[in-house]
Specification:
2 copies of one chain form a homodimer. By secondary structure, chain A is α/β, with parallel strands linked by helices. Helix content of chain A is about 40%, strand content about 15%. In chain A, the strands form 3 sheets. A 6-stranded mixed β-sheet of chain A has the order 4-5-13-10-11-12, with helices on both faces. The longest helix of chain A is centred in the middle third of the chain and has 15 residues. Chain A is globular, with a radius of gyration of 21 Å.
């Protein structure tokens, strides 16, 4: 890879050759992929990019850690829509607001970006099987992207994973292990199995390439905004890999001169599980927490990528905002009704945090904000129905319809 | 509209001015939108199209029945991926096979194309409320596209509509009437309410513009194949509006000289409900049938657009292929495992029909086929789980994992 210098430990600084099956440092620290920005500047310009017809994450090849000969992965991952939402901005009291709907990915979550990267790197490594543990979306995205590429998968999920995600896994033909335990136990079991069987490792907190896939969401936001950065970028945080990836993408663009300022990150977690935000709020290191939120994708009590996530939030002078499950589901309804965007609970937690931050006066009329919706609401229909209620169930009779709606306070007209 | 001449009844030939709230002919027949192909040829070339960066259905404006001043609708509808699937082609014994994944639309089905058109036309008509009846997808797509545009909706669904679709409706803030009855009763109730309250009508069998939205799937397929048509195009059929729209799009392209031959249509229905295919097979007119298939979106015993659909299938010298529910779910698994594409039952019925047609020797090694997947599998998780099975539920223990998979005939390696 001409564009990559090495993998460097975020803890001890030790450097490693960027081989395809790179994992953590000997010290236990997570690696960061270090690029040759001078080289990238010499081969990539905004004008060159603008001419590309490739509307997937692979349009940013010069900024990605893959060999030039590695093919694009089969599914259409990335280039999800970025919608400007003036009516929602008005409701929240913001200057401008954009929603990046990353539920519009092949398996309906942002995690497709990391899984596509995993498939590309597994192919470089000559692997035929990929494995991961996941609360759901990393799993289903790996299963789908691997199936399309003809690779086998072993996937470990905690048994609380929502049915929609499990259905995807099974349909994609993954070998699925539903672990009777929490995410931490699930993660450990996957690590044991991966070591024993030599599968390619798609655990984002161990494989340093995966954040590089996730960062493409930030690259796209920047290009879609014509390289003019918002004041804030809000995203939900679980393991920490996604917010770390977002920050990496932004720093890459800054390093090669495509953007001239960096947004502040808004780290959104649930009040039912917020080890990363607690560390930011107290200025201390993170400590494990119980996992107690309906936002399953970010219900992570032992975040596997806390180092990178905390560094990203602190470097960006970011905000750590916690929201209740009720606020999360209210944000889901707000996005659905105002924007036509249907997000899963963890997917809309960033937007819930934007609303909370606006209510607290931390952001306001002078501020521009991008909120990333990280997963599609169809992944977790049970919680959606619980929040949004049931339809009017009636016989085919207009009079019953009118009185039924009247009971709900709706005047039919 | 410079490009549109009129609406013409497919039954009696009577012509109507193409006003925004056009409905059926006085004789009860459905209208067809008639274009001025000479004009379109004078303003649209393949080269002009190729240069457009707009990757939504609105890139085909010259071929769509909207005023030049009508804005694009807010959600990113259309330009779904067309995947070539050599491994699936090999399995089915076909020369080449492409899968168009139209579940990759904002509300996860092809119906977004019609609903976006409805929103555009409702805005032209100055309407503030849109209504429809639907087995699910037309409903959820209307709810989402209307919400994004700031319009109100009243939506009538039969009470068997899957939970995923109902969850979408409620989240998008629609006024939803779940009718205790079949699709036919639901449709009639919506017609009564629309007449009484003067809402804009998004029933595809009444509003002739909606097929024009749906046809964009065919325009895209043609452009994505660089205007070289396959031998066959397979799609599932319920009301008949979608296959009619597909055929209209193909004929439009043929009329303006963008393609030089037309594919044969494969009309895919379930053996549990196939009034359209029965009419083709017997050469008679269609008759109502019971609704008895898990493929809810095409479980339509009284197809509302049979005239256009039958004409399309016959004109194309098409095949009418029926498949069982078991074949439908087997096709869902085949697409998931081989292509990484997860479709709902009705969504994969076209692919099931392609498989059946290949087994019957109706198509084979010499043939090229496009199969359209019309909706995302996340819409109907219950049937997916039923078909694909449950994961291995175990304690975090590698030995239990190995023996658990062994019981399923999988050797862990």
């Amino acid at each position: 890879m001409r564009n990559v210098i090495c993998g460097r430990c975020v803890k001890c600084g030790r450097e490693y050759e960027a081989v395809p099956d790179l994992t953590n440092c000997a010290c236990g620290g997570i690696l960061d992929i270090v690029y040759d920005y001078d080289y990238i500047r010499s081969v990539l310009t905004k004008e060159k990019l603008a001419k590309r017809t490739n509307r997937t994450m692979w349009r940013y090849r010069e900024l990605l850690p893959v060999e030039e000969t590695t093919p694009d992965t089969p599914l259409r991952v990335g280039w999800s829509p970025l919608y400007e939402e003036p009516r929602l901005a008005e409701k929240l009291g913001l200057k401008r607001l954009w929603v990046k709907d990353d539920g519009q990915n092949p398996t309906a979550s942002l995690k497709d970006r990391a899984s596509a990267m995993a498939v590309a790197k597994a192919q470089e490594a000559g692997a035929r099987t990929i494995a991961c543990s996941s609360t759901g979306n990393a799993a289903s995205s790996l299963a789908g992207n691997a199936a399309a590429a003809g690779l086998k998968t072993y996937i470990f999920v905690p048994d609380r994973a929502p049915k929609g995600k499990v259905a995807q896994l099974m349909m994609f033909g993954a070998n699925v292990i539903s672990v009777k335990g929490n995410y931490e136990e699930t993660f450990k079991m996957s690590a044991q199995a991966i070591e024993k069987y030599g599968w390619y490792n798609r655990n984002a907190a161990i494989n340093p390439y995966l954040s590089e896939g996730k960062k493409t969401v930030a690259l796209e936001i920047a290009e879609q905004l014509n390289w003019e950065m918002p004041d804030y970028l809000a995203i939900s945080v679980g393991d920490g890999c996604t917010i770390a990836g977002v920050w990496k993408g932004l720093k890459d663009l800054y390093a090669i001169g495509f953007i001239d300022r960096l947004p502040r990150l808004i780290s959104a977690q649930s009040t039912g599980c917020y080890p990363i935000n607690r560390a930011i709020q107290t200025g201390q290191d993170w400590e494990p927490m119980a996992e107690n939120t309906i936002a399953d994708s970010i219900s992570v009590g032992v975040p596997r990528n806390a180092d990178k996530a905390l560094a990203a939030i602190r470097e960006s002078n970011g905000l750590a905002i916690c929201v209740t499950d009720e606020e999360i589901m209210a944000a889901a309804q707000l996005l659905g009704r105002t924007c036509g965007v249907f997000g899963e609970p963890a997917g809309v937690t960033g937007t819930a945090a934007v609303k909370r931050a606006a209510e607290l006066g931390l952001i306001g009329r002078e501020d521009t904000v991008v909120s990333v919706v990280t997963g599609n609401g169809l992944k977790d229909v049970a919680n959606a129905i619980k929040a949004a209620g049931e339809p009017l169930h009636i016989e085919p009779d207009l009079i019953k319809m009118v009185s039924g709606f009247a009971e709900r306070g709706v005047k039919v007209m």
